[in-house]
Design a protein that fits this description.
- The complex is a heterodimer of chains A (464) and B (507).
- Chain A has one domain (30-131, 138-275, 332-445).
- In chain A, 64% of the residues lie in helices and 0% in strands.
- Chain A has 20 helices and no strands.
- Chain A has helices at 2-8, 13-27, 36-49, 52-55, 69-82, 100-126, 141-150, 153-163, 166-181, 185-196, 206-218, 235-258, 262-269, 285-302, 334-354, 358-376, 386-396, 400-416, 427-448, 450-463.
- In chain A, 39% of the residues are buried.
- Chain B is mainly alpha-helical and 507 residues long.
- Chain B has one domain (3-9, 22-29, 104-259, 266-495).
- In chain B, helix 9 (207-221) packs antiparallel against helix 15 (322-339), helix 14 (294-318) packs antiparallel against helix 15 and helix 21 runs antiparallel to helix 22 (469-494).
- The interface between A and B is medium-sized, with 31 and 35 residues.
- Chain A: Pathway: Protein modification; protein glycosylation.
């Protein structure tokens, strides 16, 4: 019976949380899935049936391969398991094929790959110290962080309903962050390089990595006042970092370089023809910009400042993915968005360079880079808000100020994901899960920091 | 209570699990001409909306009783009428007389599932939350964990939100009844329980414990004084609630008789289909259903049922206590399930509800019972293509119970409430010290058998000569487990010694 007890994991709250959310994911299998389901089925088919030279050229389906090569290899490995479920899904011509076995296989593959995410969360919890807080389990920072990450609403609905593979990718990112916290910089850098070659959206946070590793790893020591000590520069470290990045990139892009397909790969990876805003507008700065442009053009038409014949017929609000010109305000080019993004991340990068505060400072910079790129980037998906929410969770359980910002970020960010699920049967699910996560995050963080909140309140009273 | 937010989260988890299960198939989906319970409920909305009350229970050209005729008491009919009004507002095609037979669409499924969720949210879930909050002598965290486990019980979720029924209404009313009676609000409690009986006549399985407990309370208060007053008040409440529910059917004697005929179909036989009770299991060896005449079957089941539940009920009259009441609910309902006439496999839910109520007192045995009860529904769930949700919800329930109560650490004699029993046995058999270990081994065997049978039913095809082999095996194994539980619960009731705690609960 004792062995059974250990096997059943009594008292091991982390396994219970992980197992519980996995069971919830299994219950979400029959929900609505978006076109991303067909996208991944198509990629399984492409990587399985065609030679490598065709992968980035194949265009039978409109959902062409637009992730870096590591992801393509990942789909290739998956396809070899897929053939035992349903051989038909691997046929490139079977567009929109979604038999029950295909559905089961794809959903289970996402659930299975989340194992990496669970491991990463486990590692992140080790980096949190919770000695000063209460003895009750549900009030420990580790417990709260585990719930905030494992049961994250955004990840659940994007991965397990809408259908994507963000779980294990965020697992890689969180793992690399954890390794940096644990001062295992080479591993952290390696993991991030690998991650970049799985999904290049993580370029949003690459500046943070680059500056942090350069400043805090390549310069091995600081002057007593914290500023940079130029003679502590370690060539060995720089070269080893460079080597790691180079080797990973070589492994990933090498075959395509040999086939002279690099331009094609890059044009697939960075499709600038797609337009300023994604089909469903990401709630970023350009959405406001477009709205302002629309309002001004309507006003302009009413007040007869504009000539109706000069206005382009198609509008930004039709939900299509195309390029448009703005009517009143100056049109936005990809270069302009890049410049705006760089200006936005400059303050945090400066802080990271001139006043490094260790891994925590790095994490803050990373979150800011993610947010800035989200706000000012070109063709941003609303799902990219998760890039800011998940790292912020790590900060939120350690300082009260971060917790309050996190609550605002996560509640609005998750709410902005609602349009992704627009079918009637999924409406109760998204409302219930959103309420669940929001109520839990607010109440648990409030309980965690209630001592500091009361101190602040008392200080405020005394000040008056 | 403090930590209200944790209770809210528990309720939200319960609702999420319910709704995700409801995305799956329902009973009789796409299976003309008869379809299943889902179509039955839709048909009742059609009948109650389009026909006058006098014709609801009668056979006529508009109301063919062979096609899912109404066979629940009037409150179900009123509920269907209410849903029909909403349906008329959304899409009249759903309840059009005759033409809406077998109507199936995504929108309609959404509507029907929503009606179940609303009924659940209004009646059953508040009762569970209130019950857990009113539990005595346990910490707040344990109360919340208790609520989580009860709300995650797979059997009710799968039947109500998968197969499609409205058990949460009758079970919810019964739970309100238990709450009222345990907290000394006897009139409200009995009113709630009368509503439960008038919603589904199967709740009569719980009626004897209610009767005995209330009678015992009256005796305790003294039949010459307050007790008699209470008795009269209770009788009036019961009669008034019945009259109110049956009012349209009391106008003519024929109406009342016809309703009763529909509610208690005594012509139907000892059992129908495969069910995990004694008669069906016995039938495997000796075909008693065909050998014995109908009235002998009736008398036999009557005798067995009452003989098995009599000891517990008599004890409840003599020593009414809240704890004894709950355990007697379990043993009574189990006796009825095992020995009664025309029992359906879904009636196991009537036993599961009281077992959920004693989850905090004997977590190990309750969890075991609830797992077996879900397992006994397996043939029905497989027919409705609910394999994935049943496996997942069972695992979730098991996980919740294991982490909330650490059930595997609570297997000593004391914690199984068998201490006084084993002390009595040890007077005659001094070597009787292995009870706890024996029960643990039995649990292991039981779980392994259930898992194996599930795997076999899902993966293998039954042999040609015995097409029902797996269903019969499932019923047989479940029946054996249930018999063991019947003995166990009766032992607890009979050997429950009077303690100070019990005395405090009776005023």
């Amino acid at each position: 019976m004792a062995a059974f007890t250990i096997a059943a994991g009594t008292g091991n709250w982390f396994s219970a949380l992980a197992l519980g959310v996995t069971l919830l994911k299994c219950l979400l299998i029959p929900t609505y899935h978006s076109t991303d389901f067909e996208v991944h089925r198509n990629w399984l088919a492409i990587t399985h049936s065609l030679p490598i030279s065709q992968w980035y050229y194949e265009a039978t389906s409109e959902w062409t391969l637009d992730y870096p090569p590591f992801f393509a290899w990942f789909e290739y490995i998956l396809s070899h398991v897929a053939k035992y479920f349903d051989q038909e899904m691997l046929n490139v011509r079977n567009l929109n094929y979604s038999s029950s076995r295909t559905l089961l296989f794809q959903r289970f593959s996402v659930i299975f790959m989340d194992v990496l995410f669970v491991y990463a969360v486990h590692e992140c919890c080790k980096c949190i110290d919770g000695k000063k807080v209460g003895k009750e389990l549900t009030e420990k920072p580790k417990f709260i962080l585990s719930v905030l990450l494992l049961w994250n609403f955004g990840l659940l609905i994007v991965d397990h309903i809408h259908f994507q593979y963000n779980g294990f990718l965020f697992g890689l990112m969180l793992l690399s962050i954890a390794r940096l916290f644990q001062k295992r910089h080479m591993e952290g850098a390696f993991l991030f390089a690998v991650l970049l070659h799985f999904k290049h959206i993580y370029l949003y946070v690459a500046p943070a990595y680059g500056v942090y590793l350069l400043r805090s790893y390549c310069f091995t020591a600081n002057k007593p006042d914290g500023s940079i000590r130029w003679n502590s520069f370690s060539f060995v470290r720089v070269i080893s970092l460079g080597l790691v990045v180079f080797l990973v990139s070589a492994l990933s892009l090498g075959p395509f370089l040999a086939l002279n397909q690099l331009p094609q790969v890059f044009s697939r990876l960075f499709p600038f023809k797609r337009g300023l805003c994604h089909a469903y507008w990401a709630p970023n700065f350009w959405a406001l910009y477009n709205a302002l442009d629309k309002v001004l053009s309507v006003i302009g038409l009413k007040l007869k400042f504009l000539d109706p014949n000069n206005i382009p017929k198609a509008s930004m609000t039709s939900g299509l993915v195309q390029q448009f010109q703005h009517t009143v305000l100056p049109s936005v080019t990809p270069l302009a968005t890049l410049i705006c993004t760089l200006i936005a991340i400059l303050p945090s990068i400066f802080c990271l360079w001139f006043k490094p505060q260790g891994p925590r400072g790095f994490l803050r910079c990373l979150t800011l880079c993610a947010l800035s790129s989200f706000m000012f980037g070109w063709h941003v998906h609303e799902k990219a808000i998760l890039l800011a929410i998940l790292p912020m969770s790590l900060l939120s359980v350690q300082k009260a100020g971060d917790a309050s910002i996190f609550l605002i970020l996560t509640t609005t960010g998750h709410y902005s994901l609602f349009p992704l699920l627009f079918t009637a049967p999924e409406l109760p699910i998204k409302i219930l899960l959103m309420l669940l996560f929001t109520i839990y995050s607010i109440s648990s963080l409030k309980t965690l920091f209630r001592q500091s909140f009361t101190v602040i309140a008392q200080a405020g009273v005394q000040w008056h | 209570m403090e930590k209200w937010y944790l209770m809210t989260i528990v309720v939200l988890i319960g609702l999420t699990v319910r709704w995700t299960v409801s995305l799956n198939s329902y009973s009789g989906a796409g299976k003309p001409p008869m379809f299943g319970d889902y179509e039955a409920q839709r048909h009742w909305q059609e009948i109650t909306f389009n026909l006058p009350v006098k014709q609801w229970y009668f056979n006529s050209s508009d109301n063919n009783l062979q096609y899912w005729g109404l066979d629940y008491p009037p409150l179900t009919a009123y509920h269907s009428l209410l849903c029909a009004y909403v349906a008329k507002f959304i899409n009249p095609d759903w309840i059009a007389l005759h033409t809406s037979r077998g109507y199936e669409s995504q929108a309609h499924k959404l509507f029907m599932r929503t009606t179940v969720l609303i009924a659940d949210l209004l009646i059953y879930i508040p009762a569970v939350v209130l019950y857990c909050c009113c539990l005595k002598d346990i910490s707040t965290k344990k109360k919340i964990a208790n609520a989580l486990c009860i709300l995650l019980y797979p059997g009710l979720i799968l039947i109500d939100y998968g197969h499609f029924q409205y058990n949460s209404v009758s079970l919810g009313f019964a739970l309100w009844g238990v709450l009222g009676v345990s907290c000394d609000w006897d009139l409200l409690g009995s009113l709630a329980f009368c509503l439960a009986i008038n919603y589904k006549q199967m709740e009569l399985y719980h009626s004897l414990p209610f009767f005995c407990f209330l009678l015992g309370k009256c005796f305790k208060k003294g039949l010459r004084g307050k007790g008699f007053v209470l008795l009269v008040k209770l009788a009036c409440t019961v009669v008034a609630s019945f009259v109110l529910c049956w009012l349209p059917f009391f106008t003519e004697r024929e109406q009342t008789l016809q309703v009763l005929r529909r509610l208690f179909p005594v012509d139907r036989g000892l059992f129908e289909d495969k069910v995990a009770n004694i008669w069906c299991s016995f039938n495997v060896f000796l075909k008693i259903r065909d050998i014995l005449p109908r009235h002998i079957q009736l008398i036999m089941s009557f005798c067995f049922t009452f003989l098995s539940l009599l000891p517990a009920c008599i004890k409840l009259i003599l020593q009414p206590s809240s704890k004894g009441f709950k355990f007697t609910l379990v043993s009574c309902a189990l006796s009825f399930f095992l020995f009664s006439f025309q029992v359906h496999e879904k009636s196991i839910l009537l036993v599961s509800l009281p077992v959920c109520l004693v989850l905090s007192e004997i977590p190990f045995m309750s969890t075991w019972f609830l797992l077996v009860s879900t397992f006994s529904l397996l043939p029905l769930l497989l027919k409705d293509e609910l394999l994935m949700p049943s496996v997942v919800t069972t695992m979730a329930f098991f996980l919740a119970c294991v982490t909330s109560f650490s059930i595997f650490e609570k297997t000593s004699e004391e914690e199984l409430q068998l201490k006084s029993f084993s002390i009595s046995v040890r007077k005659y058999l001094p070597c009787f010290t292995f009870l706890s270990r024996m029960i643990q081994y039995l649990f292991l065997i039981s779980v392994i058998t259930m898992v194996l049978l599930t795997l076999m039913t899902v993966t293998l095809d039954p042999p040609q000569k015995l097409p029902d082999l797996f269903s019969v095996l499932v019923c047989f194994v479940s029946c054996l487990n249930f018999l063991f539980f019947l003995v166990y619960f009766n032992i607890i009731i009979m050997w429950d010694s009077k303690s100070g705690r019990n005395q405090k609960k009776i005023s």
